[in-house]
Amino acid sequence: MRAASLRQARWLAHPDGVRAPAAMRGWLATPGSLTARLVAHSRQFRVQKLRQDVAPCLADEARAIGLPRARRVHEREVLLRADGKPVVYGHTVVPLNASASDWPLFSALGERSLGSTLFYDPLVQRGQLEFARIRPGHPLLARVQAALGEAGSPFDAGAIHYARRCVYRRRQGLLLVTEVFLPEVLDLTDKRAANINDCDTK
User: Fold this and answer.
1) What letter would DSSP give residue 182?
2) What is the DSSP letter of 202?
């Protein structure tokens, strides 16, 4: 496979298309807020902001947000941590022509969850989820590796990772969220079910 082709992922409309293991497919197909599900599967949840700045978007992000080619955008990178472990890498891009009235809270999110604002704002329209296998050589994996390296977490640079993305619209502004699922997400269990079982044994 040519190196140039690795720099763009093949985004599909259904999670079955990426041939993910059943447990990973369950996470990819999570309806509603991924943050809410991670909270339910951990005793401690945290959004770790890595950076938020103006930077060039990736080639396969440009078309999704209406750009003819990769250009500079507002970019946000985070790690979603469950019980201290990074389980999802989040990458958000917003075109520079989006106004403050389009996304009024974006610049001030800090370590708050973006999902908690997107899902509870009646002006936000959510597009269709897309799914992909992110192969070694894709620039998004280089960013994941750098983020985990700074966090002191292991990363298998040769492994295939699974991701999903979605375009959101608010007024005239577009925003693209890409979530790369890390293997540790498969170790999580629903803490709500565990608490019920604990009560049943007492």
Assistant:
1) P
2) -
d(CA 50, CA 197): 37
Which residues sit opposite 166 in a β-bridge?
177
Assigned token pair, 13: 């409309």
17 backbone dihedrals φ, ψ, rounded to 5°:
-70, -20
- CA–CA dist 90, 9 (Å, integer): 16
Residues 56 and 139: beta-carbon distance below 8 Å? no
Read off the pLDDT of residues 124-145 as tens digits, 9 standing for 90 and up.
Answer: 999 999 999 999 889 999 999 9
DSSP letter (8 states) at residue 164 = E
Q: What is the dihedral of CA 18, 21, 23, 28, to 10 degrees?
A: -10
**Which residues sit opposite 164 in a β-bridge?**
131, 179
Cross-strand pairs, 56:
72
Residue 34, amino acid: L
Confidence (pTM): 0.90
Q: How far apart are CA 175 and CA 173, in angstroms?
A: 7
User: In the CATH hierarchy, which fold is given to the domain comprising 3-200?
Assistant: Chorismate lyase (3.40.1410)
Alpha-carbon gap, residue 135 to 176, rounded angstroms: 20
